[in-house]
Amino acid sequence: MPRYAHQWLLIAAAFATVILMLVLPLLLILHQAFAHGLAPVMEALTSNDMGHAIRLTVVVALITVPVNLVFGILLAWCVTRFEFRGRKLLTTLIDIPFAMSPVVAGLCYLVVYGSQGLLGGWLADIDVQLMFALPGMVMVTIFVSCPYVARVLIPLMQSQGPEEEEAAVLMGASGWQVFWYVTLPKIRWALLYGVILTNARAVGEFGAVSVVSGLIRGETLTLPLLIQMLHEDYNTVGAFTAAGLLAAMALVTLLLKTVLEWRQRV
Amino acid sequence: MTALLRTRHSVLPGFTLSFSLSVLFICLVILLPLSGLAVHVSGMGWDTYWNVITDPRSIASFKVTVLSAAGASVINAIVGLLLAWVITRYRFPGRRLMEALVDLPFALPTAVAGLTLAALFADNGWLGQWFSLAGIQVSYTWVGIMIAMSFTSLPFVVRAVQPVLEDLTPDLEEAAATLGASPLASFRKVILAQVMPALLTGTGLAFTRSLGEYGGVIFIAGNLPYETEIVSLLVNIRLEEYDFAAASALASIILLASLVLLFGIQGLQARLVKRWHGL
Predict the structure, then answer these.
(1) pLDDT digits (tens, 9 = 90+) for A56-75
(2) Count of CB pairs separated by less than 8 Å, A with B
(3) Residue ranges of domains in chain B, CATH in brackets
(4) Taking the domains of chain A in order of start, what are their residue ranges?
(5) Which chain B residues are within 8 Å of A95, Cβ to Cβ?
(6) What is the Cα–Cα distance from B195 to B165, expressed in whole angstroms?
(7) CB contact under 8 A, A99 and B254
(8) Where is the signal peptide, in residue numbers (chain A) (predicted)?
(9) Contacting residues of A for B127, CB less than 8 Å apart
(10) B27 to chain A nearest CA, in Å?
């Protein structure tokens, strides 16, 4: 416990900041969604647009998370278990999606795969449309969320070192057995941590998806895009109901994240 | 062929597989779209490019984006240092909750943050009414943009500074106190000096993130051309007008800025860490 007045003052300032900046917005979501009682919320939740947006958001996340999970494991295995030229370059390159504006990311994909894009003409010839449809939305979501698993795994696997895996190989284990019985049990919590972060970003991505979705109502609107659409329609209850769903996802993410961090510390 | 790259042999299997798939992924997912933009921009001619980026509306959007992001980064440096300090130094009820909540801006989708902040700071909103009493207009001004940016990038400074504060041993502070330094002087000369590299890294990352922030900002900004229009939004507007050239030119500027910042921060961090260990 702090002993001096100035320490309590600092704690009070920190609490005030957290309440004003973080807690108040969460309360406001509830307040706005339930401003006219429960009935409008239920109506918003059961509307066709909302149902479609929820399903689309889940589909995008269900494709994105496994892809980035596999990529993250492969990259982490590669850069932490072997020494080779260009190792640093690989770990630098995967930070790019973190630094980029999501709108610019969406634009880059549009420039390559859109109808006027570099590969667009060829794609149109074989009758494949990626942009303004589900494939494009999944592609940009994979882009913006690809660093998380690798970023969580690399420092952990680096500090664990390759000795146990090497011992297993020398005792005759196959590559798959080494990964399954030696590596995976050591990294499973970190892996889960990476998956939660990837999922939160995939579900919540707005800028990049908004550029490549074409914003077609009932077709290419994910939950975050639906929020904007409802907001522009002055449908406050609907917008805040969708926001409430996403905020609940965020809180579950924080809860799991905190639990996993305690587990790793112990 | 991949064996040529190896600088040290390892008995572990899977190098060729993991290396080639990782490189393939990075090329397809990250590098191909980036070079797509580069090719597109380089094909448009210097004059067109220059006209787009020196257009008064573009200049205005660069200005409002950079200034708001700078303001947000200053706020985050101060608030982030305060939160990291309180969380690592003091034990009090609610500390763990506070620590968990600090990451909320990373977990909360930016569109939700934007929608909520806009309502919170509207003239009749829970916080906006107090600001308008004081004569400060938040929503539809750069102040609102700055607040939105500082919300979405708040965790960067806390997460960068926290581990350094945890590792600080009390010896130096005690030494400073024994030598007669006031608490404030010992904070400034002993603690701040050691935390500075992490504080700069965190603030730099927050600034980079703020430059590109979109979902958090557009709800509160009002999006008036020449006044509260951020670059990312202008890119999107040009796209909706099918003006790919203008969108790409503007995008290339933010992209270049964020890449320079990213590599600059990484380089700076490596140098500072090296110097620290060299001592």
Answers:
(1) 999 999 999 999 999 999 99
(2) 284
(3) 55-278 (1.10.3720.10)
(4) 1-33, 38-265
(5) 262, 266
(6) 7
(7) no
(8) none
(9) 20, 24
(10) 10
